Structure formats: structure tokens, C-alpha cells
Amino acid sequence: MFANAIRLVSNSKKIKNEYNIDKESPIYVGPWTVYPAAKRGTDVEVSVFSFEKRNLSTFLKNSSSLNASLKENMILENLRRDVGSLSRLRHPSLLQVVEPLEESKSRLTFVTKRVQFSLADVICVSTPITSDSSDPSNPFALDEIEIQKGLLQIMNGLSFLKNSAKILHLNVQPRSVIIDSKGDWKLCGFGFCQSLECPRYELLDFDFSIPSSLQQCLDFLAPEYVLHEIVGPENDVFSLGCLIYAVFNRGKSVINAKNHLLSYEKEVSDLNDRLGFYMKNIHSHSLRSLLLQLLSLNSKDRIDVSFLESADYFTSGTISTLRFLEAFPEKLQSEKAAFLESLVNNLSAISYRVQSQKVLPTLLDFLNDQEITASLLPCIFQISKSLDSSMFSSKVFPKFLPLLSHPQNSENTVIIILQSIDCFKVKLPRSTFYERVLPFVYACLEQSSTSIQISAVKIFNYVLDILDQKTVKSVICPKLYHCFAVTKQLEVKVAILECFHVFINATLLDSFAILDKLLPLLEKVKTRVSAVVIAMLQVYADIGRVIPEESVHELVMPRLWVLSASTELTVQEYTHFMREIRKLGDFIQREHIKKLHSHLSSSPYESSKHSTKTSSNAIANSQSSYQEQSPFIRASSSLTTVPSFASHAPSASKADKSSTSTLPFPPLLPTKINESGTHQNQVKNDESLNDLGAWKSLL
């Protein structure tokens, strides 16, 4: 029956040669040791199941040789049946075999899709929690929506076995369920399965010399099967009820037979009386009602597995969201859009793990559907905020690349991407952001849509902390200059001016770039609309604090006075304009005074000027002393001016004379004008200062 599914090769090394197997971190699924592995050349993640035959010899060493041989053959046959059934059957709810069974003298080995955990391991160390308290770092913390989804998958698997494969599982328990890397629950453990068309009763007495993982567990078997040897689909329904109960009770079934038949009978006899008490850990009333039907001692009263998925517990609340996503391809576009609109508001009710493992992959698969892309993006970006950078870079961002390079995206799609640019900035390496995301922003500057252009310009304010001066000067600003020059939309011009304001204050535009490119661009602006004029005022005020003082006097202040004359300004705007001009003027004045002080203190002639000042003070003191001694000088000191030295020159008109300059009396150093019109000092030494005759001759 399973011959085609088994590769029986002595000491076969195919799996070993084709897969890189990590033997440092195994998990255990029933009797199998499961190792994470990857196929060489493709790095596809898989799991390698292995069973060492030598362990059987250890288990059976106390049995007689004949019994040991029979038991060993029976166990090996069950293991082969397990793998053979999985290899033949194909269903999303069943563990999928990648490489069929290889059997050697020492072990059994086969390969499946990647397995993350055994359900038995998860529920034994954790109780179900609500989505609000879900800890994404704890892989064993199942929330209720994960349980609902997982149970639905197991029910679908059992329904497939009954209705399509015509197989009874007869081993439904936590050790027969695995959880894969996507959080999906898969059914395995087919070692005791029977054909539904000709079932056989094969329950053996429990052998305590053999590990329980190699035997059927009484705690999860139906009473009619164990006590009355009745084999039918209802057996799996009862086992499913025990499984559901175990999920909410750390792996314990409603029956605790301790692998003894007599204990099993006793447990079953008063099961109905104990069920109400046992349900205390199950808070959902609809699930409690469902369990009472599944665990009925009368097999005919049990609900058919095919109808389980329509029960209230599996159709209401958040689980309906996941079920809609499963059927997403079959829905109408209007239904998809309406669903996505509500989903973005309900994501907070879904745990991080379910968002990342179940919701996000489905949304990303439909990202290329342009009709609903704008509806998908808000959900995707909201979920992505919680992802770590490595997951976003490897799983999410590659799906965005077609959108970032596609010129025909709808306006809504482009604007949503631009508004969510911070997600790319935070999650991506800077080099990837520069190479993949910024070119998309540059392309948006050339779009005809005003909304897109404004959104694109504003992006540079959001990503300012990762921009460098070289990129701003040589790449970004040239594109902004061009856009500013060609656009007729004043809103775009204002947005670009605000961007220049930010760049200047962040010192990303230096004096040379401003003088060479920005000021000539601003000089060409003809509009006097108040929004543009006020934005230009702010930019000019920023420029005035960066460029040299001479350039401010020549290029900035005159331009501000011209702009202030705009009749489009309100009184309040004009007042603000003049205030800013005064502020800039005050700033320039302070800076110039500082420059003068600095120049004077560093001048090589400063010391000589200081000496001259000292000499002048001494001369003034001696003149004052002389005036006190000489009556003539005291009388003459009442004169405020002296005749111009021009009187010694050729005669001039009366008007010219009246306009000649005057000097304070008396001069510090008596002078006369020579024939060439230049002054000559006639005081040769300090003694002539005391010669009254010399003063008289000058008068």
C-alpha cells in the first residue's frame, strides 16, 4: 500500500547529502526527533524527521526475544504507515512530506515542510491568553484567535479524511498536531489510521516497557472504541473534543486513565457529572456548548465534524476576519475594499503574531492588484510598524519594489506611500532607503498632481535626520530648483520654500550654494501673492544669517523692501514683514560691530593710534593751562570759529566763501596752505607752542 512512498535503501545518504541539518536544536513530535534543516542550493527551510531503531532494542530488552521481535516489527510498521499516509495525502491541514521515507538499518528518516513546534509542547507550558496581553517574544503564548484558527484547521483536516480520503485517524491528540512557521496547525501521527471502508479494531493493551509516544493514548480515545470495539468517524469527533479541552487545560484531557483500562472505565462512567466543573477554564459559552456535543458518551449525539466550522464559536468575532482572508481571492472587489476599510480599524484586536503570520502575508499577496492597492496599504503599514527591521526588509519591502518603480500608480496609492515614508526610513538600512525609496520621491516631484508634488516635497522634512549635505546640494536641491521654476501651482512653490527654510536651518545648504543657485532662483519670482511672499520672507531671513554681510546688503535687504510693498499683504502680515526686516537689520548691525571690534583689536596700527590719542590729550591739557595764564588766550577762547584757511588761497566768490569749512579755535597745530593747496605743519617743536607771536600772525 505504501511501497511507492518508501525509499528503502541500506545506509542511504540522500537526505544527509542534500540537506544541511541542524542537530543542535531538535524538537519531538510523537516518536520522531525533528531537526530544522535547509535544502542545499536553495536554502528552502524544511524539517527532517528521524527515528533511531536502536532505541527499540533498549526499550524491549526485558521482553522475550520472540515478543521483542514482534513488537519491534509492529512499531516499525506503524511508523511506516504514518509516513506513507502523509506522503499519499495532500491537504492544507495535513503535514506535507517533501522527501519520502528513507529506511536504513539504523534509522527511519523523511523530510517535511518546516515544523516549528509540537502542539503538545506549546499547551503544556502555556495557557491561552487574550490578544491584548499577547507577548510576541513568547512563542508558547497562544491567544484565542490562534486557537480558533488552529482548531478550524484540524477540523478541516478531519473532514477531509472522512469525506474524501475515507480514513479514520484514531490518534487525534496534542502530540499528533504540529505548528508550522506560519502559525498553521497541521495534523500528523497517522500510525494508527484505518480505512473507513473496512476498519479494524487494533487497540492493544498498554505496554509500559514502550514509550507512550509509540502507542495510542487512552485519554484521547472514544469510549465506544475502547470499551465496545466500535470503529467509526464518531471516534475522531470525541478525540477532537478531548483535544479542544486539553488546549485550555495545559494538555490534560477530560479523561485521566493513566493508561489503565480499569481507570478509563471509571473516568468514563462519571464523565457527564464532571464535565461542568471541567469547563471552568473555557470562558466562551458557545465553545462550552459545542464541547458538550463533542464529548457525548452516546456517539450518535455527537455533532458531525463537517458542521463544526459553522458553530458560533468559529464564525463570530475576530476569527471571521481570518476566515474572510482565507476566501479573499473569491470575493468581489467591492467586498474586498469594504473589508479592508474595516480591518484597519480592527487590527488592534488581533495579536502581533496573528497579524504577522496570518494577516500580513495575505495582504502582501494582493498588493499588485491596483484596484485595491490603496485599501491594502494602510493595513500593511500599520502591521509593519510592529515588525523588526530584518523581517520588514526581507518579507515586506520586496513586495513594495514594483510599486516604487511603477509610474502608473493611482494618486491615492502614491500619496499613502509618501505619507508612510517614515516606515521605510525606520525599518530599512540607510543605503537601501537612498537607492530604492528616494528615487521614488524624486519621480513624484515630476508628477502633474499638485497633491503628489506637495507630499513629495514634505518628505524631505520628515527624513531630514538621515540626509547629508552632499545629497541635499547635488541631488535634492537641483530637483527642487527645477520644480520651483516650472510649476505654476503656488501651493507647490510655498512647500518648496518651506523646504529651503528647513535645509538652511539644518545647515544642509551652505553660503556658496545659496549665492550660486538659490538667490538667483528667488530673484526671478514675480508673484506677490501673500502666501508666497511670506514664505520668501522666511527664506530670505534665514539666508541673511548665513551669507556674507556685503551680500546681505546687496542681495537680501533690497529684495525684502521690494517684497514688502506687495499689496496682497494684510496689515498683520505687513507688520510681521517689517518686524522681520528690522530683526535682520539688527542682526547685521550687531555682527558688523563685532567685526569692527575684531578688526581694531587685530590692527598693527592700534598701538600708534593709542599713542597719538595720548599725545593729543597732553597737548589739549597744555593749551588749557596756557589759556588760564594768558589774558589774550582767555579772551580769544570765546570765539567758536576761525576764518577758513581758504582765505590764503586765490579769491573766491561770496557764495563759495560762505560755504567754506570752519575749524574749532584754537587749532591744535597751526598750519597754512601752500601754493599747491596742501596744509603744512609750521610747528617744528614744542617750543613754538608757547610763542604768542606765532598765534597772532595766524590770526
UniProtKB/TrEMBL annotation:
Positions with biased composition (Polar residues): 613-623, 673-683
Region of interest (Disordered), ranges: 599-623, 644-690
Statement: the UniProt record of this protein carries the keyword Transferase: yes
Swiss-Prot/TrEMBL GO biological process terms: negative regulation of TORC1 signaling
Protein keywords: Kinase, Transferase
Keyword Transferase: yes
Superkingdom of origin: Eukaryota
SUPFAM superfamilies: ARM repeat, Protein kinase-like (PK-like)
UniProt name for this protein: SCY1 protein kinase Ppk32
Species whose genome carries this gene: Schizosaccharomyces cryophilus (strain OY26 / ATCC MYA-4695 / CBS 11777 / NBRC 106824 / NRRL Y48691) (Fission yeast)
